[in-house]
Write a structure and sequence with these properties.
The structure holds 2 protein chains of 2 kinds.
Chain A (H helix, E strand, L loop, with lengths): L1 E6 L11 H10 L6 E7 L9 H7 L2 E10 L2 E6 L3 H6 L9 H10 L3 E4 L13 H4 L7 E6 L6 H12 L2 E5 L11 E4 L7 H10 L3 E4 L5
Parallel strand pairs in A: 1-2, 2-3, 6-7
Antiparallel strand pairs in A: 1-8, 3-4, 4-5, 8-9
Chain B lengths: L9 H8 L3 E8 L2 H10 L5 H4 L32 E11 L8 E16 L2 E13 L5 E12 L5
Antiparallel strand pairs in B: 1-3, 2-5, 3-4, 4-5
Classes of the chains: A alpha/beta, B mainly beta.
């Protein structure tokens, strides 16, 4: 199963895509993904339920979050009500160690995203803060990467022996599915996703998307 | 007006300025203005373009055309960095009609930060609310402004 693990909808302040339109685009353009995870900025979207849309379009639509730490942005998969109480998702100065610890405690997975990116990627902060403990997976393919940002991410993953995921970081409809993650198992829920990530059997992929 | 330090204390700003009405005035929309607005938006439905229509009313987005007389609360700091429009969101609740006095009030609804390639950005969201003489909310319009702080490095 192939999932785009990093996408934003209009629920994010800079997102311009409705989830319905992502679904329509994936089907209309035959984008080679089986679903996507909405990782809204600095929040977990408790209110939206995309089950009907998922069923209608035959896609897996899950929810996660993208929070901000001293090491840059971090995706969280497996967000629970208890995890939401563990730290303030809106805080842009979250300590990464606190995020990782809370995720471990509440059965979630934290994944630094676009780690090769200036200012908001983990690699840019290693010299200042050192290599953080507890990171096991990073995003090595990001659909919004510029220049050598993905190369820096891949080098970081190789150096630190991190697993790599892929996500489009789509904010507009046509960017969905640019990058994704391939799993050997089916994933239909947050729990499935967390399990799949913890088994570490997956690979990041970059998809050729028609213009 | 005071000048803010580069490392702006957003929490203090939120405490001081959020949810305090800093601009308030009353307006009454004329039928001509409603028709002009509707026409400029490309509306063709008679209830927006024909004052004789039984349900004549303003198009739902009309709130986006109102402006506060004052853009920020008194004493609000100015900022270093690049300021940009960060969007507008209109939430219509009930129809606005010609000849009905409308109370327009503006408060700072949210101040939040995010980080990006270019550094920290601070978003200021002003919310303008529209209510009738009975105090019934007719709608609101949010205007966001973002300040991109000058990067340190």
């Amino acid at each position: 199963m192939i999932l785009d693990l990093h996408a934003h909808s209009v629920k994010s302040d800079d997102g311009r895509a409705k989830v319905q339109n992502y679904c329509q685009w994936i089907k209309a353009r035959n984008i080679g993904i089986d679903g996507f995870v909405l990782t809204e900025h600095r929040q977990f979207d408790d209110q939206s339920n995309y089950d009907d849309l998922a069923e209608k379009h035959g896609l897996t639509i899950l929810k996660g979050s993208e929070v901000e730490t001293e090491y840059g942005h971090v995706l969280i998969f497996g967000v629970t009500p208890a995890l939401q109480q563990a730290f303030d998702f809106t805080n842009i100065h979250l300590p990464l160690a606190e995020v990782i610890s809370a995720c471990e405690q509440h059965g979630a997975v934290a994944v630094p995203c676009h780690p090769g990116r200036k200012r908001v990627g983990m690699a840019a902060h290693l010299e200042t803060f050192g290599v953080p403990e507890g990171v096991e997976i990073v995003e090595v393919f990001n659909g919004g990467s510029r220049g050598d940002e993905d190369k820096i991410a891949q080098q970081l993953a190789e150096d630190q022996q991190y697993m790599g995921i892929g996500g489009s970081d789509a904010h507009i409809v046509s960017h969905i599915g640019r990058c994704a993650t391939e799993f050997p198992v089916d994933i239909f829920s947050q729990q499935d996703l967390v399990c799949a990530l913890k088994t570490k059997k997956f690979k990041a992929i970059k998809l050729a998307v028609e213009a | 007006m005071p000048t803010a330090d580069q490392a702006l204390d957003v929490a203090a700003l939120r405490d001081q300025f959020l949810n305090v009405v800093f601009d308030s005035y009353e307006l009454t929309l004329s039928a001509d203005r409603l028709v002009a607005y509707a026409t400029s938006c490309g509306e063709t439905a008679a209830k927006f373009t024909d004052p004789q229509h039984a349900d004549f009313q303003a198009p739902p987005t009309i709130g986006s055309s109102f402006q506060p007389k004052q853009r920020f609360p008194k004493g609000f700091p100015t900022f270093h960095g690049l300021g940009m429009d960060a969007g507008k969101a209109v939430a219509p609740d009930k129809p606005m009609r010609a000849g009905v006095p409308i109370l327009v009030q503006t408060h700072m609804h949210d101040i939040y930060t995010k980080t990006g390639r270019s550094g920290r950005m601070i978003f200021f969201v002003n919310r303008m609310t529209f209510s009738d003489e009975a105090g019934i909310l007719l709608g609101s319009a949010d205007t966001s402004i973002v300040i991109r702080e000058k990067p340190q490095t």
